[in-house]
Structures are given as structure tokens and as C-alpha cells.
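Review box. Two proteins, two foldings.
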Amino acid sequence: MAASTGNSLAALLSQTHLDDHDEILKAANAQLAKSKSDVDAQHVRAVALLKLDRFDDALRQIEQGGDALKKRVPLEHAYALYKTGKLADAEQVAASAATSNGGRGAQHVLAQATYRGENFARAADVYKELATRPQDGEGFEHYNDLRINRLAVDAQLQWQPSHGKLAEKWSSGKVGREDLEAFETAYNAACSSIACGEFGQGEMLLKRAKDLCLASEDLTEEDKKAEIMPILIQQIYVLHKLRKFDEAAKLADEVSLQEYDPSTKHIARVNGMVRATEDTNPYLSSRSMQQSADLPVSDKPFAFQSNILDHNTYVMDLSSNKHRGVASTTLNKIAADPVASTHPITASLSVVNAAAHAKGARGRAGIKELLPLINKRPHDVGLALTIVQIYVNEGNYGAATPLLENFLVRLENSGNPDVLPTRFAPGVVGTLAALYAHAGRRGSVRQELTKAANYWLSNSSPATPPPASLLHAAGAALLESSQPADLEQAGKIFSALLAADSSNRGAAAGLVAAYASTHPDKIEAAQLDALTPVARLISDVDVDALESAGVATTVAPSQPPASAKRAAPKDKPDERKNKKMRKSRMPKKDFDPNKKVDAERWLPMRDRSYYKPKGRKGKLRQAGLTQGGVVADEKPQQQQQQQQASGGGGGANKKKKKGKR
């Protein structure tokens, strides 16, 4: 039966052309109409559907064929999964096919699936293995395509800080002559430069890629338009970063006249909103962004791109007063991540969530809205740092420091060891140390950095090395102390840094400084050789000039005793300044020299003898005043008052006086 089925299928296929996939599909359908369990017909139908880019139908056919068909077509199965966006399943099937002698095709699918699944480390390993294996008769085109894909992985690795050293293992990171021979390699090299922040070199490589693409004879005009659009989009981004806004605007007008794929169209629309100099209606901008945000599965941006685009969407929604929706969406994403996560994406979501709860309030008003949230989400790092930042912007360091201290205490006392890496994260520890330094608490800075360094030294592994920047800061802080225990701890920290990187000259210098006074025997000759020679340090010092100038000393000025008076200036008679002559007043025009001048003219009017106040009260008040007049003898009056007082006492007073005698 199988032989007759194969003969009938071969007869049907002999009537079609190998490039006519529609006819091949019709022949396979006709055979399956007779026998649904025909594996050969199922195989032919699945391949025909893949050739027609009907990937969902091809995957459905392979799934319906069962294990028998899956074992026969592992490469087609993996490719169908890859094209339908099921990247994890595609990676698993392709890896199984590659290990079971599936050929280079399975490895290529595995590399593509891991690349789109953003498992760039594994993609780099697969491409490295493909580059070292024999090419199975494949010529220069295979080598060129492989180099293009390797450069694409390299560019993606540059965007991943945790995998930066992995990219250096198989890529020098430098632009070679081969990178400038094809527009694809030039474009990928430009993307790698942009990821490293080298925008000048990226601009040069993008221009080279554009010129090569336009001059290519192997591409049709339609292909050139499709290939050049990503180059133009990257050029606009680079020009904007280089602050060449006029050139970026001119190039953006050129891009707007072209047709491009959905993801490029969406990115171009977002970049156009960023370049806008005039204020636009936030509701219309949000609607425009949502129109192009629905992208196909096969054309989804990578994670670092999607995060930026999502962040822009949240900002547009906040501008449109959609605070409740943004708060709900971001909170769901924050809850999906591990507790106390320090991932940049989660931290940025916490900031957006805080902005949504603040509803545009700033300063103290914003803090008033956010403080209740810290009680509901006590382990939210992004929220805590947001409140600390607002306090710092307001100049309230006294409130920022205890808030961060209490947050870290909650993490330590949570009983969950998974949150301790967040507690001692370099950024969190650095923030608290900066607050301590602002308050002049050098001891607290040293204590906090030492505590974090001890944690990382005791909880590190080859897979998760301790943060070198934090260890450097802790060692430098301990060197400021004169205590032997602190210097001993600094020596241990710098020893760990040297063990991780023997070429670390800063760690070698710190180790020598730590052990110079406590354990000189622990200093090796190689560590001393790593220091800058003394001759080089003093090469620009003029010894003769220093010797002739002498030793600079600071003499304290002699201060006279507090009771001594300032001596008069010893000036020569000729050098004394002339006293300022008083301006003379000319007499009045009606001045009569024969008239007698009033002798009391220097006294106030009320103190003059001839002053007569007006009114009855004024005269009585004047009579009671004695200033400037003759004082009468007061003794007779006092005696008279005493007699009156003694005479009015009565008989009781007389008896009392007798008793005293």
C-alpha cells in the first residue's frame, strides 16, 4: 500500500513544476483526500505551505501528522515554530535536531531562534561553532552571511551590559576592512558602535552602508527601498544624538515619503513625535501612537526597544490624564517580577507608577501622595528611590536619609535571602553613602560600604562576581581610617579585586597602601612593579627651582594683647593728611551786629528761662518741672510730714512707744 501511495504521489508531482508550489500543494491535497494517514503527502504539503509563507497552516499540518511526521521533518518543524513566534519551542526542537545529525540547517534555525528569543549568548556560541566547522561545500556567500549574522549578535550583546565581556571573547569590537565591503556588515558594525555610544563612528558606518546599498547591482529597486529604510531610521537617531537637528529633520522628511515595514513605521512615528518642537495635543499623539503599536509576531521589536516604546506610551497616557489606567497596568507588571527587583525595567515601571499616583503633583504635594504607597509596597526599590529623589530635589536631606535607612532595614529583616542582593546593590548602597557624605558622616559611609563589601565577598561565585566598583569604593573608604582592623579589611578587599583581575592597577595600589604599615611582608614584587615609578611621577619637578626657593613656611601673625591700644601711625609731618575744613556759614541778610545775641540760643526752647507754655495744662506742667531751676530745701517739708504722721496715731501708738522704752 505504501509503495502504491508513493507511486501515485510521484505521478502527481511529475505533472507539476518544482517551483510551482501551488500545484504541489494541490497534488498533496488530492493525495491526502484519498489517504489522510499518508506521511509522504503530509510531508510534501508541509513543505509546500512553508514555501508559500503559510507558516500557521504548515505548523498545523505538522502537529496533525503526529510523532511520525515530526520525526521526519524536525528542521521544517523548528522553522515553522520560529516563523510563528513560538521561539522557545523552536529552540528546543532545533537543538534536538542539531544534536541528532540534523545538519547545518538545524544549527542555523537554532541560531535564529535564540537570536529572536534574545538568548544572545547561546546564539553567539552557535555562530562561533558554525564558523569553525567545515562549510559543507558552501562558498563565499555562506561565509559572508555568517559574518553578517555574527555582527548582528555582537551588536545585540553590546546592548546587554551583563554580556559585554562575552561579546569580547569572539569579537574584537573593532571595525575591520571586511566590515566595509557589504552594506549588511557595515550596518551591523554601525549598530554595534551605536550601542557602545560611539555615535561619530556609527554615523560614518551608516553613510557607508547607505552608499553600498544604493550602489548594489544584486538588489532590485524594491529591495533597495526595503533595505535602506532601517539605515535611514538609524541615521536619524544618530544625528539626533549628535545634535544635528537640521540634518535629522531633512532626513526624516525623506523617510516619510517611503513605505516600510510596521515596526520601522512605528519607530519612525515615535521619533517624529520626539523631534517635534511645538506642543501637540496629547490625546491626538496618544491615538497616533496606538494606531501603529499593533505589530505582527515576526516583526516585534527587541526587549530594549519595546521597553522604551512602552515607556513612551505611558508618558503619553499620563499627559492625557489616564492616571488610573497607567497605575493599574504598571502595577501588574511590577507584581509579575520578583520581590525587590533591581532590574532597570522594573525600576522604571515603579517610577512611572509613582508618577501616575502623584497625578502631576510635585514636591511636597507629590510626597504626600506617595508616602502611603511605601507602606503597601515596602520592598519596591524604584518607589523608595523616587521618594528619596524628590526629597533631595526639595533639599530635605534629613527626611531622605531615614526613609532609605528604614527601607533597607525592612529588606534585611524580611527573612527572605533573595532580597539581600537588592539590599546590597551598588546603586542602593551608593545612594545611602552619598546621603551620609552630604551630612558629613564619614564614619557611616565607611561602615555602610564595608558592610556591603563583606556581603558580596562572602556571597560571590564565578558566575556572579562581586561588583568591582563597590569594592573599590569600600577599600578607598577604609584606607582613610588609621585603625589596623580597617586597613586589614581594606587589604582583603583589594586582594579579592586582584584575584579577579590581576591587571587591576588600582587594586594593586590599594593593596600596597593597606599593607604598607601593617603587613609589609604580604606585598609582592609584582604588585610594587604595577605602581607608577617614582622617577615618572617626579619627571616634571624642577628640583633646582625648589631648592633655590627654599622651604615654604607659614608664619602666624603676632597679635597684640586685647587690652593694648592701637599705636598711632608713624607718619611724617609732610605725609599727614590735611583736616577737612568745616564749611563756614554766612550770616543772614538782616543780621544786625549791634543787636545783643541771645545767650541761651544753644538750649532747646523748653529749657530756656523765658519759655512760657501755652494753655492752663502747659503752665501747670511747667510749674512742676525743676530741670534747670533752683531746688528748694526739702528738710522742713520732710519734718512736717513726720510730725503729721506721728500725731495721727492715737493712744495705741503712745502705749507702744512707752513699751519700747
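Next protein.
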Amino acid sequence: MTDSGSGRGGIDIEERGRTGRAMTTVRSLAIVALVVTAASLAGCGMLGGGGGGGDGGDSEAQGNVDAPREVAEPMDPSATEVFDRVTEIMGVEAEAPGVRVTNLPTSRNVSSPFVTAMVGLPDDPQRLTNPINATYDPEENSVLFNDEAVFDLNGSQIEYQLAYNIALGLHYQNDWIDDEDSQSAVLRGTLNAVMREYTDEHMDTNYVDAYDSAEAAFESTTAYEWATYEALNYYGAEYVASQTDSASDIQSIYEGGVPETTEQLLHDTDEGATDLSVTTNVSNWWIDERMPRLEATLGELGTRAVLRSQLSASEATAAADGWGNDTGMAFTSARNESAGAVWVHSWDSASEADEFANATEAYAEARADGTYAVNVTRPAEDTTVVVAHRGTFMQNAEITYAGGTVEVVVGGGSS
């Protein structure tokens, strides 16, 4: 899974829409007691389907509601109208998703051991806990609203969440993305383009952030959030804006082939990643995790974003230029508070590795008074290894380089 008006209907009535906007119909299931939200978010009978006579399933829907809650503001337009608007903006046809209220986690913590080690937690760690109001499930083609949060949203917020997740679903249905790249900068950029047009055309409130520069975007958030996802948001939106005139053009980005690395996205180049081999051997007393979002690499953009936590924008940009490849992992002791993260880069040339190493020394010095100490080494001319650590991690870690492979052994290796 990823992160309504006259068509108000019941809860948990699962009916799929037919292909094409013109073929999408509404099965109305009015539940007066749910004056707003739950009624607005009809189970999937709201969008799609055809069929159904009699009472339209009203009695079944009411049977799913134990304790109706009143909410202050109804959603207008209906979910079907929102679907039609989004498909028109994107210039695509698709199957209307189901929409239902269900039990979801109320929040998601976006922190990761790797970024915590490399950047350090923000002054207010609560910023890293994001509410989950709605999500899209590609397996069942449904927009799912959180049954705990939905009653606290107003009509405009519900409309925005619905439009956003419908747009995300259309990306899946058109095979533009899959679960492997659902966090990519390009996806963030295309969703931004859709929602910017949607809010400009159909809403009084603009929920889409817009910044005149990367510096303004960086200053609006924390270094942690910038390194985790805000840099992806900004540069993804910038890339999409440079490639399209409107959201109806975004399909050309996916059909023409999206950038495979953020280096390609930033520099409009076809240059691919270089070879990088890293192995790990970890004892049972240490927990090892990959990079944030389960990705194998942070890329040039992620490298720039991490360094930006301590360096100026120009210094971070220059240091990340010449990126060839990178990968990293975080380790946490099961016995005490010791922890560490290892970040390995390959570079296009020795001089670019020099520039990164020098910048990382300055980055490490800036973090000298923090929870984590930082070391940087050069096992080969075109290879760098950055280690952020606390406690006894360094005494328990051995990092070697042989035959083009970096090996990381923690806690003596597998027991």
C-alpha cells in the first residue's frame, strides 16, 4: 500500500468501476446518520459499477455501522466527480477504484536507523511521525480511509486525500510504477503536478507546497526530513516541470523512460551507475537494516541531501557531483545503545572521491559534538567509506577492501 456529495453511499460495498470515465457510474447508498464523512466515503459502491436494484444495498451498509459519528462538513463533490476530474487532468482512462473506510494504523514513523546515524534526529522527533489518513492498495485497487482519522477531516481534506490516492492508483493501473519504485522522485513529481492542477482548478485551499528554490524548500523543513523525502519531493517536482507543460503530459515521462538514478534526473544524462560490491557479515547480537525506504542506494541526490545537514548547499552539491554508486546499512546492538551506519560510495574519478572525502571531513567535524562520531576512509582511489557510530560500534566492526569488494563484519560475524 502507498501513502462526497450526491453520490454519498454506504460502507464496505465492494463494486469496481468499469473502464473509462464515461462508463463510470454511481450506486448511491444514503445513510443519513453519517451526515458527512463515512457516508461520503461509500464503500466501493461509490465509484463504479453498474448493477444493483432494489434498495441499492442500503440495509447491508447500515449493518456495517456500529456507532455513527457526526462530522461538521460534508464533502462536495462526490467521489465519482473527483475520479472524473483526476482522469481528465491526467488525460487517461482507467478503472475507478473502490473507496472504503477501514482499520489502518493511525500514523507512520518515517525515521530510519541509517538517516538517524548519518544526519541526527531533529529537535522535535515528533515531526517524523506522519498521520495516515488514507492510502491506496494496488492489489485490490482501492482507496482506503482510516476509520480513526476520517471523522477529524473536513470536506476539503477528504477531497484532497481522495484525489491524491486516485492519482496514485492511476499510476499503478497504467503500469508506470510498481512497489519497487513507489517512493521515487519522479513519482513524487508527477503526483505533485496532478495535485497542483487539481487544487488550482477545483479547490479553494491549496494543499500543495511550492518553493522558488531548493534553499527555500530546505529552510522550510528539517535536515532529517530533507534527507529522507523532502529533497526527493522538490527535485522530483522540478524535473517533472522541466519535462511537461501540464499533468496530461506526465504519461510521456513514463513511456519515454524515467531516469534510472537521481544523477540522471539532476543532470539530464544517460550515464549509468558504476559497479559497487559490498558484503556484510553480522553476528546475532547486532541488528542490521538497509537504507531508508528499503532502497539499495541514496544516489547523488541523497548524498547531497545528507551532506546538506551540515554543509552549505554549494558544498554539498559539489561533493556529491561525480557520484558513481552508493549503498549503506545501519547496525544496532541488541545488548546496549551502541549503533553505527556504514555508507560506501564509488566515484567516477579519484579527484571526485577526493572532493567528497574532504567535504565529509568538514561534515564530520561539524557533528563532533553530536551523538554520533563520523569517520571517512579511502580503501581505494575511487571508493570512500563513511562510518557514523556511537558506543562500542567501532570496536565491534571490521571494514576491509579486497578485489573491488568492501566487506563489513560486525560483532565478529555470524555465530
